[in-house]
Amino acid sequence: MTDARQGLSGLLDTEAIRKDFPILDRTVHDGKKLVYLDSAATSQKPRQVLDALNEYYERHNANVHRGVYTIAEEATALYEGARDKVAAFINAPSRNEVIFTKNASESLNLVANMLGWADEPYRVDSDTEIVTTEMEHHSNIVPWQLLSQRTGAKLKWFGITDDGRLDLSDIDEVITEKTKIVTLTLVSNIMGTINPVEKIIRRAQQVGALVCVDASQAAPHMVLDVQALQADFVAFTGHKMVGPTGIGVLWGRQELLEDLPPFLGGGEMIETVSMHSSTYAPAPHKFEAGTPPIAQAVGLGAAVDYLSAIGMENIHHHEQAITAYAVKRLLEVPDLRIIGPATAEDRGATISFTLGDIHPHDVGQVLDEQGIAVRVGHHCARPVCLRYGIPATTRASFYLYSTPAEVDALVDGLEHVRNFFG
Amino acid sequence: MKLDSMYQEVILDHYKHPHGRGLRDGDAEVHHVNPTCGDEITLRVKYDGETIADVSYEGQGCSISQASASVLNDLLVGKELGEAHKIQEAFLELMQSKGQLEPDETMEELLEDAVAFAGVSKYPARVKCALLSWMAWKDATAQALSEGKTA
Questions:
Q1: Which residues contact A373 (CB under 8 A, 6 or more apart)?
Q2: Cβ–Cβ of A29/B123 closer than 8 Å?
Q3: What is the mean pLDDT of each run of 10 residues along chain A (422 residues)?
Q4: CA–CA min distance A373, chain B (Å)
Q5: What CATH code would you report for B2-144?
């Protein structure tokens, strides 16, 4: 153990936690231990979640909300039980405010489409403005560009500062009486920045605009309380929070979900259907057309149980300790430049960097040879790369199972990269 | 080490000392990107009748994509269009071989330094890097020809 690793406080018992994640035992490239540092892309899954998926398919599989037979009732209870778990996890006032989608992208597209088809006072049209930020994942940019192109609404942006923070100096000019919706990320997926959303929400409330928060990189890592947050919509995805792929969540305030029109039509979301017209089921079902991702929702429920048992506060403290250590160690690597906050304050456990002139692709390839999995590229946040005049970054991201030893492995690996291309 | 099969000395040499880099006069210009990683290349072709008078380029990307553009410049400038297409097709075949193709003598003669990329074909994520400049060249050539500037 290096000296610097001693005295790290707030760490979880990763030895015990890692036993829950079978994949973390894997080796790659002729026996190299897998060092998985790409949890911001997707997290690994604990046995508890894998077992829940398996048990669902082996014991309870049936379509939901239809059959009167035993296993159909069981499947429905499990699916709706997962909704209860998610509602409790985010402190939603009502379980009916939790809509299951296939991922955060679908959740954000759903909000954009609700507003595009809505009547007044929510309707986004050519007289109105949409506000987002330069820091967003493409999934919180493109749906709004589409909405803007289709409705003629103006798309406005908050910029970012040199040190990877949102530039709110022009907040009163960006969010105005014309603003209908402000949509932004709680935690940047490329820089790890935790954004001061309260300030933005206050301003949005002053002008009567709705606020949509992309919590994809927040929900897995910290306490997410939608009531405390005071946003109108919150989107996140299951697979980044130890759940399966194929399940996402949109939380929305109940009165909005009652007022806003459905987007996808089909089975499950209706009340009555005739050839002339249909009436819709109340939320959340109004927004869940077709057979939903049942097993995946059940898996997400198990993921929420898993995270809650460890405690989101504890997970957050663990990641803060790992992040502080990682920032410190990475800054010791010659020619390494952190893109985003170069301190551990107000940031999550995702750190992007460049290494001299060595392209991130080459960095990632040489790290992979040592068993270290990082993400390279623009991380679906190309405007951030453009902002800093770089083609791409190497990104290391940590989670509840990450250890200081893995930070050391990364730093050693980067030394090897420098030698290889030196 | 496996990594050395990808990062051959020849490739690293071309990466560190690229041949023919920089944009010069051309008949057509294209800009190609690799959307998954952000590699970019702007490439111009200049034809003198059926002969490739110049391929000039500017771009940013990993060692593989940059070295590949350098090798392309070496191989194609001065060649007749028909020969150039043969080289391009051979390189494409090599890159799509998933590491299964052992270049024979004919291919080695045709591809010269470009056979060093054989190891890259084992890494699916990197094949696109190696092919970026070649696809750009093909596109630029098609544009130059359709504009009738090579007649």
A1: A34, A35, A36, A37, A38, A367
A2: no
A3: 68 97 95 97 98 98 91 96 98 98 98 96 96 97 97 97 96 97 98 97 97 98 98 98 98 97 90 88 95 97 98 98 97 97 95 95 95 93 90 96 98 96 83
A4: 14
A5: 3.90.1010.10
Binary contact (B2, A369; C-beta < 8 A): yes
Residue A38 lies in a domain: no
> What does the alpha-carbon distance between residue B34 and residue A377 come to, in Å, rounded to a whole number?
10
* A375-377 vs A393-397, strand pairing mode: antiparallel
Compute the distance between CA of residue A179 and CA of residue A233 in angstroms, rounded to an integer.
16
Q: How many of the other CB atoms lie within 10 Å of CB of A129?
A: 21
Residue A101: predicted pLDDT? 98
Domains of chain B, by residue range, sit at 2-144
Q: Minimal Cα–Cα distance from A421 to chain B, Å?
A: 8
Separation CA B118–CA B121 (nearest Å): 6
Number of H helices, E strands in chain A: 14, 17
- The count of structural domains within chain A is 2
Q: Report yes or no: A209 and A182 within 8 Å, Cβ to Cβ.
A: yes
Cα four-point dihedral sign A402, A408, A411, A416:
negative
**A40 within domain boundaries:** no
Segment B22-78, tens digit of pLDDT: 999 999 999 999 877 778 999 999 999 999 999 999 998 899 999 999 999 999 999
Facing B38 at nearest CB: one of A29, A385, A421: A385
Residues A412 and A382 sit within 8 Å (Cβ to Cβ): no
Q: Is A141 in the same domain as A285?
A: yes
CATH of the domain at A300: 3.40.640.10
- Let me know whether A269 and A350 are in one domain: no
Contact indicator for A99, A287 with CB cutoff of 8 Å = yes
User: Using the beta-carbon criterion (under 8 Å), do A361 and B60 form an inter-chain contact?
Assistant: no
Number of helical H runs and strand E runs in chain B: 6, 3
